[in-house]
Amino acid sequence: MNTVFRVFCLASKAGSVIGKGGDKISQICQDTGAKVRVEEIVPRCNERVVVIAGSAEDNGLSNDLPSEKVASFVQKALFLVFERMFGGEPGMDGGDEDGNKEATTCVVRLLVLSSQVGCLLGKAVTIIKQMASESGSQFLGTNFLHVHPLRMN
Prior knowledge:
It is a single chain. By secondary structure, the chain is of the alpha+beta class. It is globular, with a radius of gyration of 17 Å. Helix 1 crosses helix 3 and helix 2 (23-32) packs antiparallel against helix 3. The chain has a 4-stranded antiparallel beta sheet. It folds into 2 domains: 2-111, Ribosomal Protein S8, Chain: A, domain 1 (2-Layer Sandwich), CATH 3.30.1370; 112-153, no CATH class. The chain has helices at 11-18, 23-32, 67-86, 117-121, 126-135, and strands spanning 2-10, 35-38, 47-55, 110-111. Helices cover 35% and strands 16% of the residues.
């Protein structure tokens, strides 16, 4: 089973994910066993797409493993990418610029295949409502392809 996350990253932060000579992205791949790549710059777009993917075979695991085990190392890579994208920014340590420990806002934009949107939303949007309720997150949907056509590999 393949697990794939596609996340938008500000072009100005892509260097933090990649690192000098690709050292940061290579380290994430080595630490997790996931494949991570930053897509090429799209003209007139201030964001790049970071693709994080993996399968049981990629990580030397048995294909008989539950999907949760496969997803876990890809999720770990996703979290490491988030750390690179948001690390060092005010408020990303659980507080704001003045050190107040109040809730902070972190906006993450994921690309979801149109064939998978129904699975994410659930019948009568029950799944995404449950995820929002349990995590305290807000989910907003948009039809991004009408705004910025991107080539997806």
